[in-house]
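Technical note accompanying the year-one report. For the benefit of new consortium partners, we illustrate the data format agreed upon in the data management plan: each record pairs a sequence with a structure-token string. No post-processing was applied to the example shown here.
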Amino acid sequence: MSVELDEVRRFLAEQEPYSHLPEEEMAELPSQMEIVYVRRGDTVITAGHPNDTLYIIRSGAVDVLDDKNVLLDRRESGRSFGYSTVLSTDLYASNSGIAPCALPIWESSTAVEDSLLLTMPGEDVRALVARYPEVSRYYGGLSARIRADADRLRRRSGADVLRTRLTDLLPGSDRALRTAVTTEPSTTVADAARLMVDKDVSCLPVVTRPTGRPRPGHGDGAELVGIITDRDMRSRVVAAGLSGDTPVAEVMTPDPVGADTDATVFEAMLRMSDIGIHHLPVLDDHGGVLTVIAATDIVRQLRADPIYLTTDLSKATTPNQLSQIIRDTSQIASGFIERGASPDEVSDLLTVGLDSLARRVITLAEEEVGPPPVPYAFVVVGSQGRRAVNFASDQDNALILADDYDEAEHGEYFATLTSRICDGLHEAGQMHCPGDMMASNPKWRMTVSQWQQTFHEWITAPQPEALLYAQIFFDMRLVHGPRDLADHVHLSAVEAAQGSQRLHAQLAALAVRSDPPLGVFRGLVVDRKGDYARTLHIKAGGTAALVQIARLYGIVAGSPLVGTRARLKAAVDANVLSRSGARDLSDAFEFLTSLTLRHQAVQLRRGKKPDYRIAPDSLGKLDRVNLRDAFGIVKSIQSSLAVTYPVRNT
């Protein structure tokens, strides 16, 4: 190989997507290319003219403009242009009837510096794409590149145990759980207790069976109607002094939550943690009980992964014990990132840790100040509400009180309780909210009716300060207390907000206000001075804007879901958002979240406080390209929102 060709090979080996090609391919690639020199001001491609050549910038810079001469992008060394027509599957037949040629390109490319360009004929490019589809994905545009990176995140093999399907744990499999031992509602608690001892089980699903012959294909036709656990026996039977002849139906938990066989171990863990239970029936397609997965089963499955340390929170009693477990959870999550876990898995893990911490701190607080005089629900909002916790998340929570709450009679109790809770969370490592958006602030302790009235005011007369509150409290999720209290508030707010076009426009204005750090030439804009010089804030114009956009679409769709990706899916189902738009936003969100978590995990290992300040120069080239593409997706959707939801001063 000549010196010149070898130099080209080395250059290509450092560029995407060629850096992933095998050595034998890289050895042949330079011989298929030519080197072209263009002067500043030269037009390389003219809009409307046929093009069947791929250009790679070896040195210099090229502006890409649309057919109206509007600047679309400025591309520097290592980037390409001309690929849109090269990779088209269509051919353009000239009017003369001569052999077909390439499609006319819709953009112009002009050198803004003296430049060296590597050129490759379209025929050779298409042959390369046929052999290596990842080349096509890269040149498919910013959405395709971001999507390819997101797909890689989802395919990573880390945390394999958590991704195990429950079907792989059914009786008969290598890691089988036991076949469910069931009982019926009429069974006495004494007989149920003996059955649990004889079969060495900690719970019994309670089922009813049809009197006639079961339908074909429906097993024995048994229907799950309840569950009774050894804990129920202690607290509801023995402690209550009930007779052994009491029917199971009187003490069981009716209509228990179950999981289907396609659910993962991780999803089962999340469901148990969210509801505060320790046993989850696994059901077949017809609702029959196949087995029961317990929290202890997950611990055994995860014996090589100490994620189960979060369950030690139930035993912790001091701030030091609580904070150590939360630190351990963060370290475990950091390790999951290194092993390739997806952003959703890491955020879910951190969320489970903070949810469990809140429940334990609440229990300890109630033990200290006494039982609550009226029912209440402790809800989390913001990132914890959306299950999007990262290593820098602080507290955002509130209290929903039953309507029989009386300030004069009960106010002092709940002021003391919430102070203990929020201070306890802070001492354990979940910092106080800088904006005081916590249940310890009397502003965020209200009855169901008061919360509904507050949401009504936010929705019907959205003022700037109210909007900031409203958008966060639409992310409400129950952590402790009666679910109906939280549901009454959240569901009524979503229903009212769906029809408020004025609120939609105001929320759109908020989403558009957070500018992604992109310059006029789509370069990444960083701070120039101070402690954060040469860094950008990935949350301000990135993940935060995406969260706001998804929240808006979710509200317009009337969806009670609070997760960012879940809201985007709901918007597609309601025909509020196109499928391709939702996919782009979801992939951009996943990439930015992954980059944030990786950045914060490195800071944790170095003993630094996690933040959202990322230095683009510290990233690999592909991450820089994807970061720019993700911000580009945000900016594009923001432009669309400004047109769809114009803000009027009404």
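Partners are asked to follow this layout when depositing records. The domain at 166-304 is CATH 3.10.580.10 (CBS-domain).
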